[in-house]
Structures are given as C-alpha cells and as structure tokens.
Amino acid sequence: APWEGAEDVGQAHFPEPRDININMMPFIMGQKDSIPEIYQHYWPLIGQCAVPKEQHGKVCFLTIQEGQVA
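The chain above was modelled as a monomer; its predicted structure follows.
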C-alpha cells in the first residue's frame, strides 16, 4: 500500500489522450453522471483513488491535462 491504512488498488491505466484540458471541474464523488459524458472515460481512474467513503456525495474537483511527456 502507498501509505499506512491505504488500500493498494493496483496499476493505474490512463485512457488514450484526446487533447483534453480542463481545470478544477466540480463533480460529486461517487456519482459518475455528475461528470459530463465526454469525460466519463476517466471514471475508472477516479475509482482507483483512495477516497474515504465519507467523502462520497461531496463536491470534488477534476483536472485533466493531456499532453506529451518528454
């Protein structure tokens, strides 16, 4: 596990890039439909985040910045 008390969720798999660049888009944790459909292909990756259950139903912020890494 990455830190004490955290669950190891395995290797992260990123979707193919689509030139998306959004910054701090609000969504409701645990509610896939609160994210616009065009970005929902990131939902499995969000699901791998170690977010406590008590945070589900709260507003969170999503940033996606796709680009080439040198």
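Strands lie at 21-28, 59-65.
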